[in-house]
Structure formats: C-alpha cells, structure tokens
Amino acid sequence: MRASSMQDFVVSAIEWLKGFRYIKFGLVGASGTVVNMAMLYLAQEFLFAPIADPRQRLYASLALAIFVATVNNFTWNRLWTWADRVKAAHAHHLHLETTPWQVLAGQFGRYTLASWLGIALQYGLTLWLSHSLHYLLANVLAIVVASVSNFLANDRWTFGHRAPK
Fold first, then answer.
1. Model pTM?
2. For the chain, what are the domain ranges?
C-alpha cells in the first residue's frame, strides 16, 4: 500500500468509527422521540385535559414532554453514547476531589444548556408548524431539525472530556 492510500484508509477508518457515536446518539434520540411523543399525547389528551383551550394545553404538554425526553436522553447518552468519556470525566473530577453527584449534576446542567438551542428550535418549530400540521407530525419534524445541533453541542461540550492519551 502506498503512503497516501494508507493515509486515506486511516482517515476514512477514523471517520467510520466516529460514526458509531452518532448512530448511538441517533438511537437514543429515537427512544427520546418515542418518550416525547407518548408524553405529549398523554399530557395533551389526558393530563392537562382540564385546560379548555387546546393551544394553551399544548404549551404545557409540550414543555412537559420535552423535559421528560431530555432526562431520558441524558441518562441513555451518559450510560451508552458517551460512556467512555463519562469514565474519564469521573477519574478527572475525582482527582479534583469532586463527588460523583457533583459530576452528574454538572453534566446534566451542561447537557441541558447544550441542548437549549435544540429545545428552543423544537418548541418554536412545533408551535409554528402546528398551525398547518397535526401537532404530533409538527413535533416529529421539529425534533429532526433540532437533533443535529444537540449532537454537536453535547459531543464537544457536555461529554467532551476525553481520557488522557
């Protein structure tokens, strides 16, 4: 193998391997979408049914659905998608005499802040699109748009701590 073709092979192999994290993120996101959609439906049709105005009910239902899905996604991304980086972060923070709860709270805070753009996009797009589409379809479309910004922010900031080489 020539040096340049070997280099091309290594670069493509690295890019291929990096794809697995995004696939995991996508699978977690898919589970979060199911959680979000189920919670949105249950809240809109049952939990917040006493709110007479369907538009007002949608505001509350959507906020609850996004919160529950965010907790679901944080948990699974932490345990699976970025598990290798979580271990490195714990080792680093334990060296700094930080408790595991402080590490967890810090990661959840960063996860939530890193996801704010995606959450705002999802919320705004869902409300906007629901004027012309069914609210569940509007929500799915908004989730797809928001997922890219969420992955990039969380990959680089929330779970960005890598093990020392």
1. 0.75
2. 20-158
